[in-house]
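#lab-general

N.A. 3:47 PM
ok so I finally got the sequence cleaned up, no stray characters, all 375 residues accounted for. can someone with queue access submit it? mine expired

B.Y. 3:52 PM
send it over

N.A. 3:53 PM
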Amino acid sequence: MHKKTLLVIILLMLLASGCVPTEKPLSRRAVRVALLQGANAVTLSSGDVLTVKETRSGRVLSTSRPGKPVILRLAPRGLNIAGTPYAVQDLRVRSASNQISLRGKAYPGSLRILRKRGGLLAVNVVDLDAYLKAVVPSEMPPEWPQEALEAQAVVSRSFVLSHALRNKDRDFDISSSAQVYDPNRRDQRTDKAVDATRNTVLFYKGKLLLSYFSTCCGGFTEYASNVWQTEGRFPPPVRCPFCREEPGFRWRARMSFEELRRKLRRAGISGARSIAVHRRSASGGRVTALKIKSQDGDKVIKINRFRMTMGPSVIKSGFFNIEAKDGYVTFAGRGWGHGVGMCQRGAKVLAKRGKSFKSILQYYFPGARTRKMRW
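B.Y. 4:20 PM
back already:
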């Protein structure tokens, strides 16, 4: 058989098996994670020599003795490195040990320090697998069942690569808070989950899926469009009876009306007089918007903004009822988080019942498929 014909046949077989993504990935590179923004100074340290270079030219500007911290500060026309000002805007810091400490955490890879209008931007340039091995144990307890950990690894990989493809022309791909990134939490079991699912991501309708997840969906997952201004298509929500078996499924929050009024003022709503549910989702009845009667008239606030204003660990989810009595407001609810995508506690229960990570993902992302995508 002719070589070209054979290659075409092999390619068609790979496409049919789902091993070749329909969305062309970028050439393999590291992930760029924003660790801090707007700082006036950063202190970096390592057990080995730290080398500071200008990113564009590669010119070495400073080297430190092993173990000696390096302080980088804003300067009037550039950056001050260990007490010496330079007319530079963009630095790359490396260590022979491939570990650089910033604010008590030792990050793998290198750091890029940029002088921006609002202050210093510190970006960790790190291998994708090393990044995931710090994210998965930060987002899911390592003692949970292995198949749940593997489902989390695939979801977190798809999440970060979706951001990286969208942000390839920006200074960083993702912030360290978009999904928790703590290299101090690495664990052998979550390392194994990342290795076992290497290159595996979720695709939906021919596109790499921006795959969300939350701690506990409260019995139903949610439409992404009810929580954020979303781009592209997202799988429909599903009923999830599994997380009901987990502790902390139900919650209550009680606060004085004065405290509620004070917090709403931060969201630009002054003189609140009453609060009521304005709209609920068709998916299980989760609150998607609230109506506040205020001194400036009726105001509608979306649930995600309301939760962030009150505190996401206070109003744990959008599944709640409201009772106002004797100057206090009580929220009685269930679940924890926005509810979009994979329910982590539900995934834990499914894994305990013997479900594979692929079955878990197919349940929470109906219509999505796992595929291999090299980065």
